[in-house]
Design a protein that fits this description.
Chain A: This is BMP family ABC transporter substrate-binding protein. Chain A: Keywords: Signal. Chain A: InterPro entries: ABC-Purine-Binding, PnrA-like. The complex is a heterodimer of chains A (about 350) and B (about 350). Chain A is of the alpha/beta class and about 350 residues long. Chain A is about 40% helix and about 20% strand. Chain A has helices spanning about 1-20, 40-55, 70-85, 95-105, 130-145, 160-175, 195-205, 220-225, 255-265, 295-310, 335-340, and strands spanning about 25-30, 60-65, 90, 110-115, 125-130, 150-155, 180-185, 210-215, 230-235, 245-250, 275, 285, 320, 325, 350. In chain A, the strands form three sheets. A seven-stranded mixed sheet of chain A has the order 12-10-9-8-6-7-15, sandwiched between helices. Chain A has a six-stranded parallel sheet with strand order 2-1-3-4-5-11, sandwiched between helices. In chain A, α2 links the parallel β1 and β2 (about 60-65). Chain A starts with a helix and ends in a 5-residue tail after the last strand. Chain B has helices spanning about 15-35, 40-55, 55-80, 90-105, 115-140, 145-165, 200-215, 220-230, 230-235, 240-270, 280-290, 295-320, 320-345, 350-360, and strands at about 1-5, 190, 195-200, 345-350. Helix content of chain B is about 75%, strand content about 5%. Chain B has 14 helices and four strands. Chain B has a two-stranded antiparallel ribbon with strand order 1-4. Chain B starts with a strand and ends with a helix. The relative contact order of chain B is 0.20. Classes of the chains: A alpha/beta (about 350), B mainly alpha (about 350). The interface between A and B is large, with 42 and 39 residues.
């Protein structure tokens, strides 16, 4: 006991002096909105953090806070990291945008990286991935595999990222079956397995035999597995939760981006940027295609290659839900139109919450 | 052998003061064991959890900032509980007050002058009081159970907030995300000291002191205490139970509503679908931990806030799960209640033979 006490006193003394004399060159810190064990969004960000630790070894130290609610606690959590000597802080949810900007103003020497937002500053960069590219592929698979011609989509918040995902999924499906229909349920949460499961059940009861989701838990896929329908993993490969139900998954691979940005802090080349990469850069990765006939797998892989080669899923002809033309034949929507999307394409069986 | 609790004839004054300290010590001991089991050095973890937040100015400020709404709501609730009015709905009053207070900067963003902030605070208190008066009127007019009605109104208020930020009050420039516009500087409660605390802290402390004086020194304070301890005696003295119910609910609601407005104006700067991590419910605990005394509530609010900040500290420094902080909060409350029980009761061992004899009567 005595020796434990001694080492502790020594450790505390060291910890008190420690912030000034850290062994690592850079401290990278991460704020997660969900638990690292959600096996979805926050889990994937934490995989990225672990990849950073592995890649840089002793040169980089990392820390994280999980389940930080979007609200006053978020600002405090980010500020804690800034005070504790973090050199770069990744805030990984849209709702952290204003707190990140606020704290960044107070700590001009610390670099901030906000995922999925639209506000930047000299020391605040933003990053996101072109998840809609993956959505197009799974939309095609859905249309090939569905018997009822109806898919169910569990959506979180009506922000452009989610809306463009819905549209891209349906455009992919319509490229295979022009009459394909999509039902949408808004659960107004990123992570609530109970709500997500209820939404999945409701959609299946309404005739959907393919389930896809823009929420973070594995619950919708598990419901699909139980009810004998099919679906797709979201954010991470969820095959272990739905061996028979998962066709593929859209995996967010943050590791290359995180390593790249921490490297930039190490060599002093860090600049505020807005990064928006997809399949081609490896930020969006398709999980192995399973439970599918060969011709569908081939189609999916061909589309994947096409997108990697620079083709944009939002290429006309695209008709909006109200019948107006969004893009003429062969015209591609620009980044701004996709990043600010607040309209449905034709065929969505839902009214966009306005 | 059976263990029985027997009421003590007298309770020790010394223990009344010592009991919270013993509870904190027991919590620290239990927390240490949990840290040890989860593979962390318990002494470092305890230091990070309970001591380190007090050693740096910013974390001290963060703790006080977190304690502020708890203290303000807790003070109002103390008046309710002292007078035997069981207001469980402070969370709803907090939210409704915040809605009322935010109406001005959201609906009239161009109304920017020195009157903006005072008006918002008055509206906030008014909104909270109105929301609290619903269960109070239901109780005095129709004899409904205020525990149920005040609690149910929490859900009504939070759904109303949810509706407004997703619908009519959504930021027109916010890309459809459910949040209101950001308040202008004129509608923002100024920061004090290092910028982590807003003016809400000094306002709260002043209110707590005034309330303590009112409770201890004035006729109103006497009325509140008498009606709580013996309503019959109070009615002989000419006090009206109904009027006091309305008064205590309105006061608690006003303070909760004020806390809500100050949290939104000084901290969040905008309305979000959720603006409170359960302050209104935690404040119930704070009120009782503080023995329904405003000064006690200030201490209790601080201790509870410390458990949040300390929980973050061990998480960020040592990678301890954030669930452990919740466990430690639960332990703290458990030990406080357990220690209090032993002030009022003592343990008596009853032998098996007597037990059999006693149960046969039942």
């Amino acid at each position: 006991m005595k020796s434990l006490l001694k080492t502790t006193v020594a450790a505390i003394a060291f910890a008190a002096a420690g912030s000034a004399a850290q062994a690592a060159d850079v401290k990278a810190c991460f704020v997660y909105v969900g638990p690292v064990g959600d096996f979805g969004w926050s889990y994937q960000h934490d995989q990225g953090r672990q990849a950073v630790e592995e890649h840089f070894g002793d040169k980089v130290e990392t820390a994280y806070l999980e389940s930080v609610p979007e609200g006053p606690d978020a600002e405090r959590a980010i500020e804690r990291f800034a005070r504790e000597g973090c050199n770069i802080i990744f805030t990984t949810s849209f709702g952290y945008m204003n707190p990140t900007i606020k704290v960044a103003k107070k700590f001009p020497d610390v670099k901030f990286e906000h995922a999925t937002g639209y506000k930047t500053a000299d020391n605040v960069a933003t990053y996101n991935s072109k998840f809609h590219e993956g959505r197009y592929i799974i939309g095609q698979i859905a249309a090939k595999q569905s018997k009822s011609g109806v898919a169910g989509y569990i959506a979180s918040f009506p922000i452009p990222e989610v809306v463009s995902g819905i549209n891209s999924f349906l455009l992919g499906a319509q490229s295979v079956n022009p009459d394909f229909k999509l039902k949408v349920v808004w659960v107004n949460t990123w992570f609530d397995p109970g709500k997500e499961a209820d939404a999945a059940k409701a959609l299946i009861d309404q005739g959907a035999d393919i389930i896809t989701q823009h929420t973070d838990s594995t619950a919708p896929l598990q419901v699909a597995q139980e009810r004998g329908v099919h679906g797709f993993g979201q954010a991470s490969d969820m095959i272990n939760f739905a061996k028979d139900a998962q066709y593929t998954a859209i995996i967010d691979d943050w590791a290359p981006y995180y390593i790249h940005r921490v490297e930039a802090v190490l060599d002093g080349s860090w600049k505020s940027e807005s990064t928006w990469d997809g399949l081609a850069e490896g930020h969006v990765v398709m999980a192995p295609y399973t439970n599918l006939p060969d011709d569908v797998v081939e189609m999916a892989k061909a589309t994947e290659e096409k997108i990697k080669g620079g083709w944009e899923p939002f290429t006309g002809p695209i008709t909006k839900q109200d019948g107006t033309v969004a893009a003429e034949d062969g015209v591609t929507l620009d980044d701004g139109a996709i990043l600010g999307m607040n309209w449905y394409v034709q065929g969505v069986d839902d009214k966009l919450p306005q | 052998m059976r263990i029985e609790l027997v009421k003590r004839k007298e309770h020790s004054q010394a223990m009344l003061l010592l009991s919270p300290l013993i509870a904190v010590a027991l919590t620290a001991l239990a927390a240490g064991i949990i840290f040890l089991i989860s593979g962390h050095n318990p002494l470092i973890a305890l230091y990070k959890f309970f001591i380190e937040p007090l050693t740096q100015q910013w974390s001290l400020e963060a703790t006080i900032d977190k304690a502020t709404p708890l203290i303000l709501i807790g003070c109002g609730l103390a008046v309710c509980y002292l007078s035997n009015n069981w207001n469980i709905g402070a969370e709803g009053q907090f939210i409704f007050g915040a809605l009322f207070g935010s109406a001005l900067p959201i609906l009239y963003p161009d109304f920017e002058n020195v009157a903006t902030l005072p008006l918002m605070l008055v509206f906030g208190a008014l909104g909270g009081a109105l929301w609290a008066l619903i269960p109070a009127v239901l109780k005095t007019r129709f004899n409904t159970n205020e525990i149920l009605t005040s609690l149910m109104l929490v859900y009504v208020a939070s759904l109303l907030l949810d509706y407004l930020v997703r619908g009519p009050w959504r930021d027109p420039g916010g890309y459809n995300f459910p949040e209101s516009r950001i308040f202008s500087d004129a509608a923002t409660l100024p920061d004090v000291f290092g910028g982590l605390m807003s003016l809400s802290t000094p306002i709260t402390i002043i209110i707590a002191i005034v309330l303590a004086l009112v409770l201890a020194k004035t006729l109103k304070g006497f009325e509140i205490r008498v009606m709580g301890e013996s309503p019959r005696a109070g009615s002989f003295a000419g006090f009206s139970a109904k009027r006091l119910t309305l008064f205590s609910f309105a006061l608690a609601g006003a303070l909760a509503g004020l806390a809500g407005t100050m949290e939104v104006s000084g901290g969040l700067n905008q309305l979000l679908p959720t603006i409170s991590p359960g302050y209104g419910f935690t404040a119930i605990i704070v009120a009782f931990l503080g023995r329904l005394n405003p000064f006690g509530i200030i201490v209790a609010g601080f201790v509870l806030a410390l458990s949040y900040i300390g929980g973050e500290a061990v998480q960020s420094a040592m990678g301890v799960s954030n669930k452990i902080a919740s466990v430690i909060q639960g332990l703290l409350l458990f030990f406080v209640l357990a220690c209090d029980t032993f002030i009022l009761y003592r343990i008596r061992m009853v032998s098996r033979r007597v037990t059999a004899g006693e149960t046969s009567h039942v």
